[in-house]
Write a structure and sequence with these properties.
Order of helices and strands: HHHHHHHHHHHHHHHHHHH
Radius of gyration: 27 Å
Helix content: 55-70%
Length: 407
């Protein structure tokens, strides 16, 4: 009777040295992910450099005059802050009635002061100092404009995905916009407000616009664990400290933007309204009550910080405790001072303002407005964010159209 030979067992040490296919796949995926991460970081850095160069050239080549506010509401008060009341700064009547926040000119005042002290220590010629002080605000505003372009691109990548055609198209539109070239590097508070709003939008918790009822491609165990977590009252949006820190950056910058330009409140009012009520959004909200409590808590803290900085700056400049947004609102409501500077038709923004700002992008904007009300192939998350942007744009334009004085 013959017996078949049994294969000898593989020693445990030898078995451990045999490469497993799953390990190879994981290793390759990890290497590929690391490569893409490194490539993306280099791409972001290089793009930021290119945008800074673009806006630097933009800033120093602009020779035209647009509005008096780019001097009288920023550089003139900044000159007085830096060099004193007897420095020859031309201060308009609004500043004597505390109608403007001193935060914006305080930035340029700091630049003036530091540059003047540094050049004084180096004993530079007065003619050279004059050139530096004249171009310094332009160069700084060019840097601010570059940051706005960069975060517009990053916001689009956050919505449409890294390396997507939609995100790259967004970058081209904002970087090559004739209106951006004409206006973004000017020392207007509107220009700084725009950039602050863009950066704040980038850090806003867009996970609020997801759909928790959408099926997820996960293993049964992971799905069961996710279901157990979702059913609890633990935060589903702010899971890490990084998420909370991003919210803080968003709310602080939004607060500063609202203090600079009180009408910025219309933008954030529409965003909060939709994100809380899910008006016009599809799917089930992934947020819990604790998420909105975190937003409320951080809004109070960040708002108080922004108000404190603004109050300190205003007290330093005006010499008394004052709140310029209230003064501005009081003068415009009780005395209708804004009408003194001119009135426009109710349809001004639709028929003149937006076409001037968008130029050749008007047809694409109209298509985007109409398509934002339907769910496309990109899913509920992207569709909800597109609806939010459309809702914000339309409600802000409609609200501002009710005001007689438009700019």
């Amino acid at each position: 009777m013959s017996t078949s030979a049994k294969p000898s067992p593989v020693p445990a040490a030898a078995e451990a040295t045999v490469p497993h296919r799953d390990d190879d796949v994981r290793r390759k995926l990890a290497i590929r992910k690391a490569y893409h991460t490194a490539y993306y970081e280099y791409q972001r850095r290089d793009m930021m450099y290119l945008l800074v160069i673009l806006r630097f050239v933009n800033a120093i080549t602009i020779r035209t005059f647009f509005q008096p506010d780019e001097y009288f509401q920023s550089l003139e008060p900044a000159w007085e802050m830096a060099f004193g009341a007897s420095s020859g700064a031309w201060i308009t009547w609004e500043w004597h009635h505390q109608l403007r926040s001193s935060l914006h000119p305080a930035i340029f005042a700091l630049l003036y002061f530091v540059a003047d002290r540094a050049m004084g220590m180096m004993s530079m010629y007065p003619q050279f100092k004059a050139i530096i002080l004249a171009y310094l605000p332009k160069v700084f505003q060019g840097l601010v404009a570059a940051v706005g372009d960069y975060y517009t691109w990053q916001l689009a990548e956050k919505v449409y995905g890294q390396g997507s055609n939609a995100a790259f198209t967004t970058l081209l539109i904002t970087a090559l916009s004739p209106w951006q070239w004409f206006c973004s590097t000017r020392t207007l508070s509107n220009s700084l407000e725009t950039v602050l709003t863009i950066v704040a939008l980038y850090y806003w918790p867009w996970a609020l616009y997801g759909d928790s009822s959408a099926p997820k491609k996960t293993s049964p165990d992971a799905a069961e664990a996710d279901k157990a977590t979702t059913s609890s009252q633990e935060s589903q949006i702010f899971k890490t400290n990084a998420d909370v820190n991003s919210l803080r950056i968003c709310l602080f910058l939004a607060g500063i933007a609202c203090l600079l330009r009180p009408t910025n409140l219309f933008i954030w009012a529409s965003i909060v309204t939709v994100s809380v009520s899910r008006l016009g959004l599809t799917g089930t909200s992934p947020a819990k009550v604790s998420d909105f409590l975190i937003i409320l808590r951080e809004a109070v803290i960040c708002g108080a910080l922004a108000l404190s900085i603004s109050a300190a700056s205003d007290y330093y400049y005006f010499g008394v405790w004052t709140f310029p947004p209230y003064q501005w609102l009081y003068f415009n409501i009780t005395k209708s001072l804004a009408v003194f500077y001119g009135t426009n038709r109710w349809d001004y923004y639709v028929t003149e303002g937006l076409p001037l700002l968008l130029t050749t992008c008007v047809p694409f904007t109209l298509v985007a407005f109409f398509s934002s009300t339907s769910i496309g192939t990109e899913g509920a998350f992207v569709s909800n964010i597109r609806f939010q942007f459309t809702f914000t744009a339309l409600t802000t334009i409609a609200t501002l159209s009710l005001i007689s004085h438009k700019e």
